[in-house]
Design brief:
This is Phospholipid/glycerol acyltransferase domain-containing protein. By secondary structure, this protein is an alpha/beta fold. Helices cover about 60% and strands about 10% of the residues. The chain has helices at about 15-30, 55-60, 85-90, 110-120, 145-160, 200-205, 205-220, 235-250, 255-275, 280-300, 315-335, 340-350, 355-385, 385-425, 430-450, and strands at about 30-35, 45-50, 70-75, 95, 125-130, 165-175, 180-190, 190-195. Strands 1, 2, 3, 4, 5, 6, 7 and 8 form an eight-stranded mixed sheet that branches. Strand 6 and strand 7 (about 180-190) form a beta hairpin. It is flat.
Length: about 450
Protein backbone atom coordinates (compact mmCIF):
# COMPACT_ATOMS: atom_id res chain seq x y z
CA UNK A 1 0.00 0.00 0.00
CA UNK A 2 1.60 3.25 -1.05
CA UNK A 3 2.04 5.62 1.87
CA UNK A 4 3.67 8.41 -0.11
CA UNK A 5 3.77 9.77 -3.62
CA UNK A 6 7.30 8.43 -3.99
CA UNK A 7 5.97 4.87 -4.38
CA UNK A 8 2.75 5.65 -6.24
CA UNK A 9 3.82 3.62 -9.30
CA UNK A 10 4.35 0.43 -7.24
CA UNK A 11 1.80 -2.38 -7.22
CA UNK A 12 -0.44 -2.19 -4.15
CA UNK A 13 -2.38 -5.10 -2.62
CA UNK A 14 -4.64 -2.73 -0.68
CA UNK A 15 -5.43 -0.85 -3.88
CA UNK A 16 -6.06 -4.17 -5.67
CA UNK A 17 -8.64 -5.22 -3.06
CA UNK A 18 -10.38 -1.86 -3.14
CA UNK A 19 -10.42 -1.86 -6.93
CA UNK A 20 -11.94 -5.35 -7.09
CA UNK A 21 -14.81 -4.20 -4.87
CA UNK A 22 -15.13 -0.87 -6.69
CA UNK A 23 -15.35 -2.50 -10.12
CA UNK A 24 -18.07 -4.85 -8.94
CA UNK A 25 -20.14 -1.98 -7.54
CA UNK A 26 -19.40 0.22 -10.55
CA UNK A 27 -20.82 -2.37 -12.95
CA UNK A 28 -23.92 -2.56 -10.77
CA UNK A 29 -24.33 1.21 -11.09
CA UNK A 30 -23.58 1.43 -14.82
CA UNK A 31 -24.32 -1.24 -17.45
CA UNK A 32 -20.86 -1.05 -18.96
CA UNK A 33 -19.90 -2.14 -22.47
CA UNK A 34 -16.27 -1.93 -23.65
CA UNK A 35 -15.22 -1.86 -27.30
CA UNK A 36 -11.70 -1.95 -28.73
CA UNK A 37 -9.67 -3.69 -26.02
CA UNK A 38 -7.88 -5.69 -28.73
CA UNK A 39 -6.11 -2.47 -29.76
CA UNK A 40 -4.15 -2.45 -26.50
CA UNK A 41 -1.25 -4.67 -27.52
CA UNK A 42 1.17 -6.05 -24.95
CA UNK A 43 4.60 -4.55 -24.29
CA UNK A 44 3.43 -1.07 -25.30
CA UNK A 45 3.53 1.99 -23.07
CA UNK A 46 0.18 3.76 -22.96
CA UNK A 47 -1.16 7.12 -21.87
CA UNK A 48 -4.96 7.00 -21.89
CA UNK A 49 -6.93 10.12 -22.80
CA UNK A 50 -10.70 9.84 -22.13
CA UNK A 51 -13.24 12.63 -22.58
CA UNK A 52 -14.45 14.19 -19.33
CA UNK A 53 -18.20 14.62 -18.76
CA UNK A 54 -19.01 12.98 -15.44
CA UNK A 55 -16.57 14.03 -12.69
CA UNK A 56 -14.85 11.19 -10.76
CA UNK A 57 -16.94 8.54 -12.54
CA UNK A 58 -14.91 9.08 -15.72
CA UNK A 59 -11.74 8.04 -13.90
CA UNK A 60 -13.43 5.05 -12.26
CA UNK A 61 -14.71 3.94 -15.66
CA UNK A 62 -11.11 3.56 -16.82
CA UNK A 63 -10.45 1.07 -14.02
CA UNK A 64 -12.91 -1.39 -15.59
CA UNK A 65 -10.63 -1.99 -18.59
CA UNK A 66 -8.30 -4.47 -16.89
CA UNK A 67 -8.52 -5.69 -13.31
CA UNK A 68 -4.79 -6.31 -12.88
CA UNK A 69 -3.97 -2.82 -14.13
CA UNK A 70 -3.11 -0.12 -11.57
CA UNK A 71 -2.89 3.12 -13.56
CA UNK A 72 -1.99 6.50 -12.11
CA UNK A 73 -4.24 9.50 -12.69
CA UNK A 74 -3.41 13.18 -12.87
CA UNK A 75 -5.87 15.66 -11.35
CA UNK A 76 -5.99 19.37 -10.56
CA UNK A 77 -3.91 20.29 -7.53
CA UNK A 78 -6.51 22.26 -5.56
CA UNK A 79 -8.26 19.07 -4.43
CA UNK A 80 -5.05 18.03 -2.60
CA UNK A 81 -5.08 21.02 -0.22
CA UNK A 82 -6.04 19.07 2.93
CA UNK A 83 -3.43 16.57 4.22
CA UNK A 84 -5.93 13.74 4.83
CA UNK A 85 -7.52 14.16 1.40
CA UNK A 86 -4.04 14.27 -0.14
CA UNK A 87 -3.14 10.92 1.50
CA UNK A 88 -6.38 9.32 0.34
CA UNK A 89 -5.90 10.55 -3.22
CA UNK A 90 -2.30 9.33 -3.24
CA UNK A 91 -3.47 5.88 -2.07
CA UNK A 92 -5.97 5.96 -4.95
CA UNK A 93 -3.00 6.62 -7.28
CA UNK A 94 -3.93 10.19 -8.13
CA UNK A 95 -1.25 12.87 -8.47
CA UNK A 96 -1.69 16.66 -8.63
CA UNK A 97 -0.95 18.94 -11.55
CA UNK A 98 -0.49 22.61 -10.71
CA UNK A 99 -2.03 25.39 -12.78
CA UNK A 100 -1.45 29.13 -12.77
CA UNK A 101 -4.64 29.57 -10.74
CA UNK A 102 -3.01 27.41 -8.02
CA UNK A 103 -0.31 30.08 -7.63
CA UNK A 104 2.54 30.89 -9.93
CA UNK A 105 5.02 29.91 -7.21
CA UNK A 106 3.61 26.35 -7.26
CA UNK A 107 4.19 25.74 -10.96
CA UNK A 108 7.74 24.61 -10.26
CA UNK A 109 6.27 21.67 -8.30
CA UNK A 110 5.15 20.23 -11.66
CA UNK A 111 8.80 19.41 -12.39
CA UNK A 112 8.72 16.73 -9.69
CA UNK A 113 5.36 15.48 -10.94
CA UNK A 114 6.69 15.19 -14.49
CA UNK A 115 9.72 13.30 -13.18
CA UNK A 116 7.39 10.92 -11.36
CA UNK A 117 5.38 10.29 -14.51
CA UNK A 118 8.56 8.93 -16.07
CA UNK A 119 8.80 6.34 -13.26
CA UNK A 120 5.12 5.46 -13.78
CA UNK A 121 5.45 5.04 -17.53
CA UNK A 122 8.70 3.06 -17.25
CA UNK A 123 7.03 0.80 -14.71
CA UNK A 124 4.35 -0.06 -17.29
CA UNK A 125 1.43 0.98 -15.10
CA UNK A 126 -0.11 3.28 -17.63
CA UNK A 127 -1.08 6.87 -17.10
CA UNK A 128 -4.58 8.33 -17.38
CA UNK A 129 -4.95 12.03 -18.19
CA UNK A 130 -8.29 13.72 -18.80
CA UNK A 131 -7.06 16.24 -21.37
CA UNK A 132 -10.09 18.55 -21.21
CA UNK A 133 -8.92 19.51 -17.73
CA UNK A 134 -12.37 19.68 -16.12
CA UNK A 135 -15.74 18.05 -16.65
CA UNK A 136 -18.85 19.32 -18.39
CA UNK A 137 -22.12 17.43 -18.81
CA UNK A 138 -22.49 17.83 -22.55
CA UNK A 139 -21.75 15.37 -25.35
CA UNK A 140 -19.12 17.56 -26.90
CA UNK A 141 -15.33 17.57 -26.82
CA UNK A 142 -13.98 20.85 -25.50
CA UNK A 143 -10.59 22.47 -26.03
CA UNK A 144 -7.84 20.11 -24.87
CA UNK A 145 -5.12 21.26 -22.48
CA UNK A 146 -1.51 20.89 -23.57
CA UNK A 147 -0.41 19.10 -20.40
CA UNK A 148 -0.82 15.64 -21.92
CA UNK A 149 1.41 16.61 -24.87
CA UNK A 150 3.99 18.14 -22.56
CA UNK A 151 4.15 15.06 -20.32
CA UNK A 152 4.22 12.59 -23.20
CA UNK A 153 6.87 14.38 -25.25
CA UNK A 154 9.05 15.32 -22.27
CA UNK A 155 9.06 11.68 -21.12
CA UNK A 156 9.69 10.28 -24.61
CA UNK A 157 12.51 12.77 -25.15
CA UNK A 158 14.13 11.93 -21.80
CA UNK A 159 14.24 8.26 -22.84
CA UNK A 160 15.55 9.22 -26.31
CA UNK A 161 12.48 7.58 -27.86
CA UNK A 162 13.06 4.15 -26.30
CA UNK A 163 9.82 4.07 -24.29
CA UNK A 164 7.70 4.13 -27.47
CA UNK A 165 4.79 5.83 -25.70
CA UNK A 166 1.40 5.59 -27.40
CA UNK A 167 -1.55 7.84 -26.57
CA UNK A 168 -4.91 6.08 -26.53
CA UNK A 169 -8.01 8.18 -27.33
CA UNK A 170 -10.97 6.93 -25.27
CA UNK A 171 -14.64 7.80 -25.66
CA UNK A 172 -17.02 7.60 -22.69
CA UNK A 173 -20.72 7.74 -23.55
CA UNK A 174 -23.40 7.73 -20.82
CA UNK A 175 -27.10 7.20 -21.44
CA UNK A 176 -27.65 9.14 -18.21
CA UNK A 177 -25.00 10.68 -15.98
CA UNK A 178 -26.76 10.04 -12.66
CA UNK A 179 -29.48 7.39 -12.89
CA UNK A 180 -28.73 3.99 -11.37
CA UNK A 181 -28.39 1.19 -13.99
CA UNK A 182 -27.96 3.64 -16.84
CA UNK A 183 -25.65 2.63 -19.69
CA UNK A 184 -22.00 3.41 -20.26
CA UNK A 185 -20.13 2.69 -23.46
CA UNK A 186 -16.32 2.80 -23.35
CA UNK A 187 -14.70 2.95 -26.78
CA UNK A 188 -10.94 2.42 -27.09
CA UNK A 189 -9.57 4.27 -30.10
CA UNK A 190 -6.48 3.46 -32.14
CA UNK A 191 -3.30 4.28 -30.13
CA UNK A 192 -0.84 6.56 -31.90
CA UNK A 193 2.89 6.98 -31.17
CA UNK A 194 4.28 10.07 -29.47
CA UNK A 195 7.60 9.44 -31.20
CA UNK A 196 6.26 10.82 -34.50
CA UNK A 197 6.36 14.30 -32.94
CA UNK A 198 9.74 13.92 -31.23
CA UNK A 199 11.87 15.67 -33.87
CA UNK A 200 9.39 18.53 -34.08
CA UNK A 201 9.46 18.77 -30.27
CA UNK A 202 13.22 19.17 -30.27
CA UNK A 203 12.94 21.96 -32.84
CA UNK A 204 9.78 23.75 -31.68
CA UNK A 205 8.09 22.60 -28.47
CA UNK A 206 4.98 24.79 -28.83
CA UNK A 207 4.30 23.58 -32.37
CA UNK A 208 4.79 19.95 -31.33
CA UNK A 209 2.35 20.36 -28.42
CA UNK A 210 -0.29 21.91 -30.69
CA UNK A 211 0.15 19.24 -33.37
CA UNK A 212 -0.11 16.33 -30.94
CA UNK A 213 -3.13 17.81 -29.15
CA UNK A 214 -4.79 18.51 -32.51
CA UNK A 215 -4.43 14.90 -33.61
CA UNK A 216 -5.62 13.63 -30.24
CA UNK A 217 -8.74 15.83 -30.39
CA UNK A 218 -9.72 14.48 -33.81
CA UNK A 219 -9.17 10.90 -32.68
CA UNK A 220 -11.19 11.43 -29.48
CA UNK A 221 -14.11 12.87 -31.44
CA UNK A 222 -14.31 9.62 -33.42
CA UNK A 223 -14.81 7.62 -30.23
CA UNK A 224 -17.47 9.78 -28.56
CA UNK A 225 -20.74 11.51 -29.32
CA UNK A 226 -19.68 15.00 -30.33
CA UNK A 227 -22.39 17.56 -31.09
CA UNK A 228 -20.79 20.65 -32.56
CA UNK A 229 -24.06 22.57 -32.96
CA UNK A 230 -24.57 24.13 -29.53
CA UNK A 231 -27.75 25.98 -30.54
CA UNK A 232 -29.54 22.76 -31.57
CA UNK A 233 -27.81 20.50 -29.06
CA UNK A 234 -30.99 19.22 -27.35
CA UNK A 235 -32.60 18.43 -30.70
CA UNK A 236 -29.56 16.49 -31.91
CA UNK A 237 -29.50 14.39 -28.74
CA UNK A 238 -33.25 13.76 -28.83
CA UNK A 239 -33.35 12.87 -32.53
CA UNK A 240 -30.35 10.57 -32.48
CA UNK A 241 -31.51 8.67 -29.40
CA UNK A 242 -35.02 7.80 -30.55
CA UNK A 243 -33.89 7.19 -34.15
CA UNK A 244 -31.18 4.73 -33.12
CA UNK A 245 -33.72 2.67 -31.17
CA UNK A 246 -36.07 2.63 -34.15
CA UNK A 247 -33.30 1.79 -36.64
CA UNK A 248 -31.84 -1.06 -34.58
CA UNK A 249 -35.29 -2.63 -34.30
CA UNK A 250 -36.18 -1.96 -37.97
CA UNK A 251 -32.95 -3.52 -39.26
CA UNK A 252 -32.95 -6.35 -36.73
CA UNK A 253 -29.50 -5.39 -35.43
CA UNK A 254 -28.07 -6.64 -32.12
CA UNK A 255 -29.12 -4.25 -29.35
CA UNK A 256 -25.58 -3.43 -28.27
CA UNK A 257 -24.63 0.00 -27.01
CA UNK A 258 -22.01 0.22 -29.73
CA UNK A 259 -24.57 -0.36 -32.50
CA UNK A 260 -26.67 2.48 -31.08
CA UNK A 261 -23.54 4.62 -30.88
CA UNK A 262 -22.60 4.00 -34.53
CA UNK A 263 -26.11 4.94 -35.69
CA UNK A 264 -26.20 8.10 -33.58
CA UNK A 265 -22.73 9.07 -34.72
CA UNK A 266 -23.62 8.70 -38.40
CA UNK A 267 -26.91 10.59 -38.00
CA UNK A 268 -25.11 13.52 -36.35
CA UNK A 269 -22.68 13.68 -39.27
CA UNK A 270 -25.56 13.51 -41.75
CA UNK A 271 -27.50 16.27 -39.95
CA UNK A 272 -24.38 18.46 -39.97
CA UNK A 273 -24.05 17.83 -43.69
CA UNK A 274 -27.74 18.62 -44.24
CA UNK A 275 -27.35 21.87 -42.31
CA UNK A 276 -24.59 22.95 -44.70
CA UNK A 277 -26.28 21.84 -47.92
CA UNK A 278 -30.02 22.20 -47.33
CA UNK A 279 -30.80 24.68 -44.57
CA UNK A 280 -34.56 24.70 -45.13
CA UNK A 281 -34.89 20.94 -44.80
CA UNK A 282 -32.61 20.92 -41.76
CA UNK A 283 -34.63 23.66 -40.07
CA UNK A 284 -37.85 21.77 -40.79
CA UNK A 285 -36.53 18.66 -39.04
CA UNK A 286 -35.27 20.69 -36.08
CA UNK A 287 -38.57 22.56 -35.84
CA UNK A 288 -40.56 19.32 -35.69
CA UNK A 289 -38.09 17.90 -33.19
CA UNK A 290 -38.43 20.92 -30.91
CA UNK A 291 -42.22 20.77 -31.11
CA UNK A 292 -42.26 17.07 -30.27
CA UNK A 293 -39.76 17.51 -27.45
CA UNK A 294 -41.79 20.37 -25.98
CA UNK A 295 -44.99 18.29 -26.00
CA UNK A 296 -43.24 15.37 -24.33
CA UNK A 297 -41.80 17.59 -21.63
CA UNK A 298 -45.17 19.26 -21.10
CA UNK A 299 -46.93 15.95 -20.53
CA UNK A 300 -43.96 14.28 -18.82
CA UNK A 301 -43.65 11.58 -21.45
CA UNK A 302 -40.52 9.45 -21.73
CA UNK A 303 -38.78 8.82 -25.02
CA UNK A 304 -39.33 5.08 -24.67
CA UNK A 305 -43.11 5.73 -24.81
CA UNK A 306 -42.89 6.65 -28.52
CA UNK A 307 -45.04 5.93 -30.43
CA UNK A 308 -47.86 6.55 -27.95
CA UNK A 309 -50.21 3.55 -27.78
CA UNK A 310 -53.18 3.28 -25.45
CA UNK A 311 -52.98 -0.47 -26.00
CA UNK A 312 -49.85 -0.50 -23.81
CA UNK A 313 -52.30 -0.33 -20.91
CA UNK A 314 -52.67 -4.12 -21.29
CA UNK A 315 -49.25 -4.38 -19.64
CA UNK A 316 -50.93 -3.23 -16.45
CA UNK A 317 -52.53 -6.68 -16.26
CA UNK A 318 -49.23 -8.13 -15.03
CA UNK A 319 -47.57 -4.97 -13.70
CA UNK A 320 -50.15 -4.12 -11.03
CA UNK A 321 -50.28 -7.67 -9.57
CA UNK A 322 -46.45 -7.72 -9.55
CA UNK A 323 -46.39 -4.45 -7.59
CA UNK A 324 -48.90 -5.79 -5.07
CA UNK A 325 -47.27 -9.21 -4.64
CA UNK A 326 -43.69 -7.90 -4.51
CA UNK A 327 -44.46 -4.98 -2.18
CA UNK A 328 -43.59 -6.81 1.08
CA UNK A 329 -40.24 -7.95 -0.36
CA UNK A 330 -39.58 -4.46 -1.76
CA UNK A 331 -40.36 -2.96 1.65
CA UNK A 332 -38.01 -5.47 3.27
CA UNK A 333 -35.31 -4.44 0.79
CA UNK A 334 -35.92 -0.76 1.41
CA UNK A 335 -35.76 -1.05 5.21
CA UNK A 336 -32.54 -3.06 5.02
CA UNK A 337 -30.96 -0.55 2.63
CA UNK A 338 -32.38 2.61 4.16
CA UNK A 339 -29.04 4.33 4.77
CA UNK A 340 -27.29 3.15 1.55
CA UNK A 341 -30.26 4.55 -0.41
CA UNK A 342 -31.14 7.77 1.40
CA UNK A 343 -27.76 9.01 2.64
CA UNK A 344 -26.00 9.00 -0.77
CA UNK A 345 -29.04 10.72 -2.28
CA UNK A 346 -29.00 13.36 0.47
CA UNK A 347 -25.25 13.91 0.15
CA UNK A 348 -25.44 14.27 -3.64
CA UNK A 349 -27.96 17.09 -3.30
CA UNK A 350 -25.33 19.10 -1.44
CA UNK A 351 -23.53 19.54 -4.78
CA UNK A 352 -25.00 22.06 -7.20
CA UNK A 353 -23.01 20.50 -10.04
CA UNK A 354 -25.18 17.55 -11.16
CA UNK A 355 -22.11 15.86 -12.66
CA UNK A 356 -20.89 15.18 -9.11
CA UNK A 357 -24.10 13.39 -8.09
CA UNK A 358 -23.23 9.94 -9.46
CA UNK A 359 -19.69 10.22 -8.04
CA UNK A 360 -21.03 11.04 -4.56
CA UNK A 361 -23.72 8.36 -4.69
CA UNK A 362 -21.29 5.71 -5.86
CA UNK A 363 -18.57 6.61 -3.35
CA UNK A 364 -21.02 6.80 -0.43
CA UNK A 365 -22.64 3.49 -1.39
CA UNK A 366 -19.22 1.81 -1.60
CA UNK A 367 -18.48 2.81 1.98
CA UNK A 368 -21.94 2.25 3.47
CA UNK A 369 -22.50 -1.22 2.02
CA UNK A 370 -19.02 -2.29 3.14
CA UNK A 371 -19.79 -1.15 6.71
CA UNK A 372 -23.51 -1.83 7.09
CA UNK A 373 -23.81 -5.30 5.53
CA UNK A 374 -21.40 -6.96 8.01
CA UNK A 375 -22.80 -4.90 10.90
CA UNK A 376 -26.41 -5.88 10.13
CA UNK A 377 -25.47 -9.56 9.74
CA UNK A 378 -23.68 -9.55 13.11
CA UNK A 379 -26.67 -7.87 14.83
CA UNK A 380 -29.12 -10.40 13.35
CA UNK A 381 -26.82 -13.29 14.26
CA UNK A 382 -26.55 -12.09 17.87
CA UNK A 383 -30.27 -11.38 18.12
CA UNK A 384 -31.27 -14.87 16.94
CA UNK A 385 -28.13 -16.61 18.22
CA UNK A 386 -28.03 -18.57 14.99
CA UNK A 387 -25.29 -18.73 12.38
CA UNK A 388 -27.76 -20.22 9.87
CA UNK A 389 -30.22 -17.33 10.24
CA UNK A 390 -27.44 -14.77 9.94
CA UNK A 391 -26.23 -16.48 6.73
CA UNK A 392 -29.77 -16.57 5.28
CA UNK A 393 -30.16 -12.91 6.20
CA UNK A 394 -26.87 -12.03 4.50
CA UNK A 395 -27.95 -13.79 1.29
CA UNK A 396 -31.32 -12.04 1.42
CA UNK A 397 -29.73 -8.56 1.34
CA UNK A 398 -28.60 -8.46 -2.32
CA UNK A 399 -31.71 -10.40 -3.38
CA UNK A 400 -34.03 -7.90 -1.68
CA UNK A 401 -32.07 -5.00 -3.21
CA UNK A 402 -32.58 -6.58 -6.65
CA UNK A 403 -36.32 -6.96 -6.04
CA UNK A 404 -36.61 -3.39 -4.74
CA UNK A 405 -34.90 -2.02 -7.84
CA UNK A 406 -37.21 -3.87 -10.24
CA UNK A 407 -40.28 -3.08 -8.12
CA UNK A 408 -39.44 0.60 -8.38
CA UNK A 409 -38.79 0.34 -12.12
CA UNK A 410 -42.15 -1.36 -12.76
CA UNK A 411 -43.86 1.29 -10.61
CA UNK A 412 -42.38 4.05 -12.79
CA UNK A 413 -43.50 2.18 -15.91
CA UNK A 414 -47.04 2.04 -14.53
CA UNK A 415 -46.93 5.79 -13.96
CA UNK A 416 -45.63 6.33 -17.50
CA UNK A 417 -48.35 4.16 -19.06
CA UNK A 418 -50.97 5.96 -16.97
CA UNK A 419 -49.82 9.32 -18.32
CA UNK A 420 -50.07 8.02 -21.90
CA UNK A 421 -53.56 6.61 -21.30
CA UNK A 422 -54.80 9.82 -19.64
CA UNK A 423 -53.44 11.90 -22.51
CA UNK A 424 -55.07 9.57 -25.04
CA UNK A 425 -58.50 9.94 -23.47
CA UNK A 426 -58.47 13.48 -22.11
CA UNK A 427 -56.47 15.29 -24.83
CA UNK A 428 -56.81 13.21 -27.93
CA UNK A 429 -55.63 15.99 -30.25
CA UNK A 430 -52.35 16.38 -28.34
CA UNK A 431 -51.93 12.61 -28.22
CA UNK A 432 -52.32 12.35 -32.00
CA UNK A 433 -50.08 15.37 -32.55
CA UNK A 434 -47.23 13.64 -30.72
CA UNK A 435 -47.63 10.52 -32.85
CA UNK A 436 -47.97 12.57 -36.05
CA UNK A 437 -44.71 14.43 -35.40
CA UNK A 438 -42.96 11.16 -34.53
CA UNK A 439 -44.24 9.38 -37.64
CA UNK A 440 -43.18 12.32 -39.83
CA UNK A 441 -39.71 12.55 -38.34
CA UNK A 442 -38.79 8.87 -38.68
CA UNK A 443 -38.88 8.65 -42.51
CA UNK A 444 -37.23 12.06 -42.80
CA UNK A 445 -34.38 10.98 -40.55
CA UNK A 446 -34.11 7.62 -42.32
CA UNK A 447 -33.79 9.43 -45.66
CA UNK A 448 -31.10 11.72 -44.27
CA UNK A 449 -29.28 8.81 -42.62
CA UNK A 450 -29.18 6.56 -45.69
CA UNK A 451 -28.04 9.18 -48.23
Amino acid sequence: MPTSRERIEKWSFGYWLLRFYQNMMFRLYFKTEIVGLEKLTKNTTFIFAPNHQNALIDALAMLTLNHSWQPVFLARADIFNKPLISKILTFLKIMPVYRIRDGYENLSLNDRIFQKTMDIIRNGNGLVILPEGNHDGFKRLRQLKKGIARIALQTEDASDGTLNIHIVPVGLDYSNYVRYRSKLLIRIGEPFPVKKYLELYRQNKALAYNSLVGELAERMKKEMIHVEDEHNYESYIFLTEFFSKYYVKFKGLPKTQNNHFEIRKRLIAKLDELKRNNTNRFNSIISKSNELLELMQQYKLKQRALPLLVSKAFNLVWMIPFIIIASPLALYGFLNHLLPILLPFWLSKKFKDVQFHSSVKHAASLLLVLILYPLQVVVVGLAFKSLVISLIYFLSLPVSAFILFHWRRVLYKIMGISRVVRLGYSKRNEFEKVNKLYSELLPELAAVYEV
